[in-house]
């Protein structure tokens, strides 16, 4: 399953709720304000790194926020075609807001 999160974990509990329901084959895509969770040296990046699933961040949203060079090692940055590829790869998806 692909879990897409669009809100900042510092403003909502969407990411926290998502992490409770992760399966071993799931993947997380952070978009919009949620990309801040993948930035170095914050509590959420550490939590995500321990989640045991692949974490993706949308490049356009990182660039819009001036965060492109601050992504944690081990997380993946995808462009819009990568976003589409993720949605095609996963038959089931859950959007967390």
From TrEMBL:
It comes from Photobacterium atrarenae. NCBIfam families: sulf_tusB_dsrH. PANTHER family: PROTEIN TUSB (PTHR37526). This is Sulfurtransferase complex subunit TusB. Pfam families: DsrH. The lineage of its organism: Bacteria, Pseudomonadati, Pseudomonadota, Gammaproteobacteria, Vibrionales. SUPFAM superfamilies: DsrEFH-like. It comes from the Bacteria.
